[in-house]
Design goal:
This protein is α/β, with parallel strands linked by helices and 224 residues long. It is 33% helix and 21% strand. A seven-stranded mixed sheet has the order 3-2-1-4-5-7-6, with helices on both faces.
Length: 224
């Protein structure tokens, strides 16, 4: 039995809750330097990949901010989210789930979206298989790949900076591109789009935290 994944929003934090009080300034700096740019870049990029009139399930949606920004570019699409715990505010309808089994019928959405979620799980294939079950057309996957010099330590620092102050579970489970593609093959998922030049970070930060450590993929089942 695989251990239960914990998408972002888990209340099992790698940092004690009482330490979050002094993360306020860090949170503000991170959001101003990286967070807002990341959301805008991803929203524009994902909006271009969605089929016309698609119903989208945002898995591990947090407060739904990303889906809300995508919706500005694609008002023809509808968005619903699921997460382990509810955010303080939610910008889209959110259903709570256990982090492993998605409480929706098979093929109930056109698109399943997983953005920086699977590296917070102990076994990404569990939730990826569930995303495959509930979608009719595509999975849009944004995550990291542990390739290149000091990729692991760099990703750990990025993850801690962006998530520790939110109480997100941090198992630091970063896969190499080979591991991702092996998992896709096992699940009979075909990467029709694979992008590594995302422009999430400013040119000043890119040489340190960019370096193609991020990828955005559009996956379809081999029989679709």
């Amino acid at each position: 039995m695989p251990s239960t994944p914990r998408p972002r929003g888990s209340n099992e934090s790698a940092e004690p809750v009482q330490r979050r009080q002094w993360f306020g300034p860090l949170d503000a700096v991170h959001d101003s330097v990286a967070g807002n740019r990341r959301l805008d870049v991803l929203a524009r990029g994902i909006a271009k990949l969605l089929p016309q009139g698609a119903s989208v399930l945002d898995i591990g949606c947090g407060d739904g901010m990303l889906s809300a920004r995508i919706a500005r570019h694609r008002p023809d699409c509808s968005f619903q989210g699921i997460d382990v715990i509810p955010g303080e505010t939610a910008m889209i309808p959110v259903t709570i789930f256990d982090g492993e089994r998605i409480p929706m019928p098979a093929r109930s959405f056109d698109v399943a979206m997983l953005v920086d979620v699977l590296h917070h799980t102990s076994d990404p294939t569990v939730l990826l298989a569930e995303a495959q079950r509930v979608c009719r057309r595509l999975i849009i996957l944004k995550d990291h790949r542990r390739n290149g010099f000091l990729a692991g330590p760099t990703l750990r620092i990025m993850d801690w900076m962006g998530n520790a102050h939110h109480g997100v579970n941090l198992p630091y489970n970063y896969w190499s591109e080979k591991q991702w593609r092996t998992a896709f093959a096992q699940l009979r998922l075909r990467p029709d789009v694979w992008l590594t030049r995302l422009g999430i970070h400013s040119p000043l930060l890119h040489p340190v935290v960019g370096r193609r450590l991020h990828f955005l993929a559009v996956l379809s089942t081999e029989d679709q």
